[in-house]
Amino acid sequence: MFYEPDKNNHGLKYNPFKQLVVPRPIGWISTLNENGVPNLAPYSFFNAVAENPPAVAFCTGMRPKSPELKDSQRNAEKTGEFVVNLATYALREQMNRSSAGLPHGVNEFETAGLETLPSRLVKPPRVKGTPVHLECRYLKTVEVPCSDPTRGNFVVFGQVVGVHIDDTLLVDGRVDIARAKPIARLGYMDYTWIEQVFTLNRPD
Ligand SMILES: Cc1cc2nc3c(=O)[nH]c(=O)nc-3n(C[C@H](O)[C@H](O)[C@H](O)COP(=O)(O)O)c2cc1C
């Protein structure tokens, strides 16, 4: 089959696009609002985009049925900081709960039943119980096309300035990420997790 997203002519019950770019890592983003209230939300339009220095990006739509930006973007832009917490199988329910569309200023650490850990170089707290955290300084936001001209899609870039790795992941000087059981998004309501790793050396 072939379809053009502009025409939405796939003929399927659900838009298949998100099932075709998989698995998407989940950037579980913590921020602070201007009053210092923590905010937490998952973003699967998320990835690492550079290595030296490391940089990441997450892409947000807008609040459903509202002209407002989502809190993660708003807070990152206002305070200049955010933290990426690794979403793990053990914390999948809490991650899901933290995606609820709550009013601005509600602390999703509390509503999701999570505890915080302080960060070292930025103010937003980290999620306690997950073994990897990336402390980030906000770089810039790039708007990308949105099929609804009254709304928007925004890619938020950050530079990673501090990296936390729990010692339990370190084996012979390497990170054994399968030990963390990171979860990732597929399409629909589906997820996967990393448990199998294979190695392929490059030809040169
Ligand atoms: C696994 C998962 C991935 C998500 N990925 C995105 C995403 O990439 N972009 C987005 O705008 N919303 C995404 N959402 C929805 C947001 O998490 C949700 O709108 C949330 O309320 C935003 O919170 P905030 O306003 O505190 O930033 C995702 C939800 C889940 C459960």
Key words describing this protein structure:
single chain; 204 residues; mainly beta; Pnp Oxidase, Chain A; seven-stranded antiparallel sheet; three-stranded antiparallel sheet; 3 helices; 14 strands; binds flavin mononucleotide
Q: What this model shows, in words?
A:
The chain has 204 residues and is mainly beta. The protein has one domain: Pnp Oxidase, Chain A. The chain has helices spanning 71-79, 92-97, 108-111, and strands at residues 24-25, 27-32, 38-43, 46-51, 54-60, 81-86, 116-117, 126-127, 132-144, 153-165, 170-171, 174-175, 183-185, 191-193. The strands form four sheets. It has a seven-stranded antiparallel beta sheet with strand order 3-2-6-9-10-5-4, with helices on one face. The model has no long low-confidence stretch (mean pLDDT 97). Bound molecules: flavin mononucleotide (FMN). Flavin mononucleotide (FMN) is lined by residues 26, 39, 41-45, 59-61, 70-72, 96, 99, 101, 185.
